[in-house]
Write a structure and sequence with these properties.
Number of helices: 3
Distance between the termini: 72 Å
Shape: elongated
Largest sheet: none
Radius of gyration: 26 Å
Order of helices and strands: HHH
Structural class: mainly alpha
Oligomer: single chain
Number of strands: 0
Amino acid sequence: MDIAFFAVAAVVGILVFVGILSPMLQSMKGILNKVDPLRKYEKLLFEKERLLENLSDLELDHSLKKMDDDVYRDLKAQTLAEAAQIYSNIEAFEKENPLLKAIEKDLASLDRQS
């Protein structure tokens, strides 16, 4: 009988615990869904910066004769194609989330001021 009591008490305890946690977890899910677009946008902007730096490095390396013309043309074409896709993704994302573009502009102006 003691085992049955503890089993019932454990089940009741678990149900109460789940009942308390479930609304909290739903609340957290809502918060995470709002953060995900920001993370996606941040990744797109980071990728854009990375590709622009790659293009700049390619230009420098080519001007210093660190690579031949064929390799330079191939790498530049590949990087430009990737950049075009990222720019397209950013543009589409900004159309879906216009406030993010406004935030990005504000952050950029803050960076220029400091």
